[in-house]
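Complex record, two chains
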Amino acid sequence: SYVLTQPPSVSVAPGQTARITCGGNNIGSKSVHWYQQKPGQAPVLVVYDDSDRPSGIPERFSGSNSGNTATLTISRVEAGDEADYYCQVWDSSSDQMVFGGGTKLTVL
Amino acid sequence: EVQLVESGGGLVQPGRSLRLSCAASGFTFDDYAMHWVRQAPGKGLEWVSGISWNSGSIGYADSVKGRFTISRDNAKNSLYLQMNSLRAEDTALYYCAKVFDPRVSAFDIWGQGTMVTVSS
């Protein structure tokens, strides 16, 4: 089955840029979606189809996808961005949705 | 307001069954595929199962295949998950989730989840 690999943690100072990666075999050929989950809350979609943002999501959140790595970029990081972030794809070969293991973003 | 409300969770012994429900409101339910996603305590998200708008296409994670059955009743705006032969490793918060768009495999609306605990 298809595997998505994320770093367990990323730390960044307020105002800086955070980059969270999601690795997968030829992931550039798939559509990648990203979710933010804060403690005790349901996940929230922040980026879909590699780089599109749902309404209400700040422009500070952006995404890219090429080769074997997709990246969620959060610019001008704020304390409120501290959360777990998950990438997700649909694997057509198995007809299954797949989530990455998640990355805990810490704002220093 | 677009909303998903799960119910049916609880404490169940290993080997027993449980049926989860998800009530949808605020959108045209039968236009969208729906999914179940679970999260074990302190762990990440795990996709469980999904069903197309007309129940014509259904998929399961390998970990639940043959034990869980997803279904929907469009007349009642409801999604279900029948869970049989439950194991300790099925203990998790179970979310139902709506796909963003028929062409987009992302989940834009999530419920608050219903907790399932499998223990003797």
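Note: Chain A touches chain B at residues 1, 31, 33, 35, 37, 42-45, 48-49, 54, 84, 86, 88-90, 95-102 (CB under 8 Å).
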